[in-house]
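Action item from last meeting closed. Structure (331 res):
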C-alpha cells in the first residue's frame, strides 16, 4: 500500500449504479486517479430494467445496455473498477480508507453511491418476472401498461403516490394491502379513495406471481378468511419499502430513520472529503436522471475539495472549460 502522504487514488466511488458511474465519468475526466468499487454488476437497479424511456435524449434503451455504456465511457477516461463489497470507511491522516472483502483502498476523497434495494415480497415468480411485469418503480414502468389492469402492493405513502401515477395509464389498479386500513398520509388516502380506477383489496397478501415470460396474474390470499383467488393483471407494482445500502456506515455518518445519509446541496457529508449521492442520500428522487446528476455534482465538488485541501491546480478537468463565469456557471 502507498504511504500516508500518497494514497492509492484521488477519488474512490463506492457503488456502481447511475450515481457512481456518473461520478466516475466526471472524476476521471477531471484527471483524478479514480477507482469504482462495485459488489455485483455495474448499473445497480437500472441494469435490471428491461426498457428505459425517461432518460433525456434517449427514446428507449435496455437498462443493462445503458449501464454498460456508462461504465465503458468512464473507463475510457481512466476510471478503474474493482468488484468487491465495501465493509467500512475509516478516516485518518486526512484521507479515507475503504475496507472491502477483497482488500483495502485509500483515497483523498470518497463518494458513497451504493444505491438502495427495493424490499421484495419473497414469493414464487417475483424475481423471475422482475423487469417483465414485476416493477418497483411506477414512474419508470407505468407507461408500458397503458389501458391494462395492474396490481399495486402496499399501504404506505409510496404505494398510494405511485398507485395514483399508475392510474394515469392503467385501466384499473387493484390496491392490495395486508391490513384493513392504510398507513399513508390523510391527503394521499383521500386522493386514492377518490380515484375511480382504484379497487382496494384489504387484508390480503400476494402468494405467487403467475406467468411464463410476462406477468399474467397474481395469486392472493385473504388473511381473515384464508380464501385464495387469482387477480388477472398484466403487471404488479411493489411498494413495501426501500432499504439503502448503508448498513456498513451506521455510526459513521448521520442518517435518517431509514438509513439515508444527510448531505448538503453539494452532496457533502459532515466529514470533509466524504460525499454521498443517489439513492443513499436523504430526500433523493430515486430516479436515474437525478442519480446521475447527484454523482456529477459530488465528483465536481470532490475535485475542488482535493485541490483546496491537498494543493494542485483547481478544476483541471474538462468540465471546468465548459463553465462560464458568474452565478449561472456549470449548467
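Sequence:
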Amino acid at each position: 500500500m502507498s504511504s500516508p502522504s500518497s494514497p492509492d487514488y484521488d477519488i474512490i466511488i463506492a457503488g456502481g449504479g447511475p450515481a457512481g458511474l456518473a461520478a466516475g465519468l466526471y472524476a476521471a475526466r477531471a484527471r483524478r486517479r479514480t477507482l469504482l468499487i462495485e459488489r455485483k454488476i455495474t448499473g445497480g437497479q437500472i441494469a435490471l430494467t428491461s426498457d428505459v424511456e425517461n432518460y433525456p435524449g434517449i427514446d428507449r434503451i435496455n437498462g443493462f445496455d445503458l449501464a454498460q455504456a456508462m461504465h465503458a465511457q468512464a473507463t475510457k477516461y481512466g476510471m478503474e473498477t474493482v468488484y468487491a463489497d465495501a465493509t467500512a470507511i475509516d478516516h485518518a491522516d486526512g484521507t479515507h480508507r475503504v475496507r472491502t472483502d477483497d482488500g483495502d483502498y485509500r483515497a483523498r476523497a470518497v463518494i458513497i453511491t451504493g444505491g438502495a434495494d427495493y424490499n421484495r415480497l419473497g414469493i414464487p415468480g417475483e424475481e423471475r418476472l422482475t423487469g417483465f411485469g414485476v416493477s418497483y418503480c411506477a414512474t419508470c414502468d407505468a407507461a408500458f401498461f397503458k389501458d391494462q389492469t395492474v396490481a399495486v402492493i402496499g399501504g404506505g405513502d409510496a404505494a398510494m403516490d405511485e398507485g395514483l401515477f399508475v392510474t394515469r395509464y392503467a385501466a384499473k389498479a387493484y390496491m392490495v394491502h395486508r391490513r384493513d386500513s392504510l398507513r399513508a398520509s390523510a391527503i394521499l388516502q383521500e386522493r386514492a379513495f377518490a380515484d375511480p380506477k382504484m379497487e382496494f383489496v384489504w387484508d390480503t397478501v400476494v402468494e405467487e406471481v403467475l406467468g411464463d415470460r410476462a406477468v399474467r396474474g397474481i395469486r392472493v390470499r385473504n388473511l381473515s378468511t384464508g380464501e385464495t383467488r387469482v387477480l388477472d393483471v398484466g403487471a404488479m407494482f411493489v411498494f413495501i419499502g426501500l432499504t439503502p445500502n448503508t448498513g456498513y456506515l451506521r455510526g459513521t455518518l448521520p442518517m435518517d430513520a431509514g438509513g439515508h445519509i444527510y448531505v448538503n446541496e453539494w452532496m457533502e457529508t459532515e466529514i470533509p472529503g466524504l460525499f454521498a449521492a443517489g439513492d443513499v442520500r436523504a430526500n433523493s428522487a430515486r430516479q436515474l436522471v437525478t442519480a446521475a446528476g447527484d454523482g456529477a455534482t459530488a465528483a465536481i465538488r470532490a475535485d475542488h475539495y482535493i485541490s483546496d485541501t491537498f494543493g494542485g491546480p483547481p478544476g483541471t478537468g474538462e468540465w471546468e472549460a465548459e463553465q462560464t463565469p458568474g452565478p449561472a456557471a456549470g449548467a
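Note appended to the action item: DSSP finds seven helices and 17 strands in the chain.
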